[in-house]
Amino acid sequence: MWYILDKSKNPIHVEKLEGAKWSEDCPKDKIVKQTSIKNYWVSTVFLGLDHSNYGGPPIVFETRITKDREWLAYQDRYCTWKAASQGHRDAMRKVIKLIRENKQ
User: How many CB atoms lie under 10 A from the CB of residue 66?
Assistant: First the structure.
């Protein structure tokens, strides 16, 4: 199931072609937050496609952490922009902890 975001950042179910067009026309609207710190990259974005496996509310946001462009096997997904924003902050805390522990 495909989604776009309304002006309040709420996911709205749409047909596939409308979702694809919105995604192409509004790429910056999909970014919740992206942060670079040392050699880490934390990216939280709107996916546009429901990853809930059709059970429960649509899961349409994701946070990933990479280091030196390699995925660190950290991924978390969310249903709302607000939860995704909080997830980004949580991921940043993890990165800061990794940097401090490894003194990198």
Answer: 15
